[in-house]
Amino acid sequence: MSQVPFDSSGVFVGGRWQRGAGGETLPLFNPSDGTLLAQIARGTAADIDAAVAAAQAALDGAWGQLTAAERGRLLLRMSARVLEQADELARLEALDVGKPLRQGRADAMALARYLEFYGGAADKLMGQTIPFANGYTAFTLREPHGVTGHIVPWNYPMQIIGRSVGAALAMGNACVLKPAEEACLTALAFARIAHEAGLPAGALNVVPGLGEEAGAALSAHPGVQHLSFTGSVAVGRLIQTAAAQHTIPVTLELGGKSPQIVFADADLDAALPFLVNAGIQNAGQTCSAASRILVERGVFDEVVARMAERYRALRVGPALDDLDVGPVISARQRQIVEGYLAVAHESGLHIAATAARAASAPAGGYYVQPTLVADVPAAHRLAQEEIFGPVQVVIPFDGEAQGLAIANGTDFGLVAGVWTRDGGRALRMARKLQCGQVFVNNYGAGGGIELPFGGVKASGHGREKGFEALYGFSTLKTVAIQHG
Ligand code: NAD
Q1: Is the CB of 309 under 6 A from ligand 1?
Q2: Which of 299, 337, 292, 304 is nearest to 435 (CA)?
Q3: Which CATH superfamily is domain 259-449 in?
Q4: CB–CB of 352/222 below 8 Å?
Q5: pLDDT-based confidence at 317, cuts 50/70/90?
Q6: What's the first-to-final CA gap in the chain, in angstroms?
Q7: How many whole angstroms from 233 Cα to the centroid of ligand 1?
Q8: Strands 259-262 vs 415-419: parallel, antiparallel or unpaired
Q9: Residue 87's pLDDT band (cuts 50, 70, 90)
């Protein structure tokens, strides 16, 4: 317990830490060794009621009276504090999520950058005057929705809080954040940072708890005017159904089965690190993981061999050892991933390489051997379903049309990567790929805080990140004044 330098068992409502209304707690486990890490509050519907009331009070009070520039300065102060505490935040994330320290630090830097970006943008979104009928002046006003609900998963808590809460606060909303029950220490640390930076009470409230309790209560609450959800497709559908009862807008950032498409003319030396890293980063538990590698037949064997070589060199071990791959989040997640690996074996698929677990990895940790599966038929379960673990499938294709058809041939549409030296092909692919982001001759653009992000098809709808998110976290009011 002493590994967490603050009391993690409370809810943060109206600028104060308090015990959850039900008085119960939930255990957090360290994925690197399976030991008990901390207790968190098991938030209830009563806590969500209190948090929504506190958020509304903030909108009616000090928070609602700040100018856009003042909100921006507050976000910049929060950003500076996140930067100061980046190492501590990375350590918390390593303990809680099992993320290697380098990745946790990158997430903390991303959180700081989101706050900086949205702090700078807070006073830059303007309405318009509209040329209209004689005798009228018509214009639009950008306004906050009011109370916004943010339900986030465990895989990238800091980045997802940065992009959704950061943008929502910039636009003047008051937020109720429900972090994931598997990992929420950095969400709690973020509440402390916001408070220390001077964010008015109630502008940000954090209620940890179970999805079906605190999460369901938040998504059903009549006092919430917008929901931002990042998580699984199944829960995303529940959130959209709940939002429909109050006809409020939702942003759904859901799963993916994102391809990187390697054409025979690609610069393979440049592509190789991206092909593997985008599959094993965060132990493959990344919504935009490149879990499918599509390779044109002429270079298929070479790409598989070179990826396999990299897989065999990967070091898998405890997050604090800061190796290439940490554990997955939970014993349950490990079971799911191992289930897919069993299917691969049963189907006789070609296991091109696995990475070994380091000797330092404790027996109680939730480790999965990163696995590269080659020659996978495009319709196979492993090539269609989101595994959410360090498993990549490699699929051969012949020519642009077939590559495109396979790339678009899943229920998902989040991100795609294209590797080619042919500019015309890059543009044709970019236009025809069904997804929210296309990267040509790179993958992920280093995080791309400025780049709008989100999915099509089962990957969700709405956009976060970039300036675009500010439109989603605000509403437009039209004013038409008749003055003769
Ligand atoms: P999940 O849907 O189980 O949980 C996500 C959040 O929803 C958690 O906070 C959970 O408590 C809450 N929740 C669960 N049931 C709920 C309910 N009935 N009502 C309200 N809230 C509820 O997802 P997960 O397994 O924790 O996360 C993995 C999924 O998230 C993957 O599918 C992944 O692709 C996706 N994801 C997407 C993005 C993106 O930006 N597109 C980013 C990260 C993760």
Answers
A1: no
A2: 292
A3: Aldehyde Dehydrogenase; Chain A, domain 2 (3.40.309.10)
A4: no
A5: very high
A6: 71
A7: 8
A8: parallel
A9: very high
